[in-house]
Each structure stands twice: as structure tokens, then as C-alpha cells.
Write a structure and sequence with these properties.
mainly alpha, 4 helices, 64% helix
């Protein structure tokens, strides 16, 4: 492996690095930042919809009010659907065993 050292003098511009991987990472970060508010809004709507359900409706889909409370501890942009689906799977898995 060869190491190349260069010296820049005052007034010289830094060399441009044309790296597709860097550009891709920057694009991903920007896209994530732009869509973050939409993910937060979607997650809140999912929880609001479930919170409006009666105890019997929640029981029909394998959830309890406690499950909904636990889902509120997730990060703001995390989808509660995946967490709650895992909770239902866990619950039904125990009953079947």
C-alpha cells in the first residue's frame, strides 16, 4: 500500500473527492432527515387509531391497553405496528406451546 502526502499552501483549494459511496451516504442522510416528520406522523396516527379501539376490539386482534402504552416508549419515528405485531406473535406463541 502506498501513502501519498500532499501539501497545500494558503489559497489553494482542497482537492475534490469523487466517491460514489460518499455521495450515496449523504443522499441517504438527507432523505432520512426529510422523511422523518412523515414517519413520526404515521407512527402517531397508528397509535391514535389503536387507542380509539374498545377493549374487546383490541382483544380480538390480540392486544391490550398495556401493549399500547408500551408502544409509546418507542422512538418517535419507529412504527408501532412492528412492535405490536411481535407482541401478538409472542403472546400467541406462548398459548400454542
Amino acid at each position: 500500500m502506498t501513502t501519498v502526502c500532499t501539501r497545500l499552501t494558503a489559497g489553494e483549494a482542497l482537492p475534490h473527492v469523487h466517491d460514489a459511496g460518499t455521495a450515496s451516504r449523504i443522499f441517504t442522510v438527507v432523505k432520512t432527515a426529510i422523511y422523518w416528520p412523515l414517519r413520526v406522523l404515521r407512527a402517531r396516527r397508528e397509535l391514535e387509531m389503536l387507542a380509539r379501539m374498545s377493549e374487546n376490539e383490541l382483544k380480538d386482534i390480540g392486544l391490550t391497553r398495556t401493549d399500547l402504552g408500551d408502544a409509546t416508549a418507542l422512538p418517535a419515528d419507529a412504527s408501532p405496528t412492528e412492535f405490536l405485531a411481535a407482541r401478538v406473535e409472542e403472546r400467541f406463541g406462548r398459548k400454542a406451546a
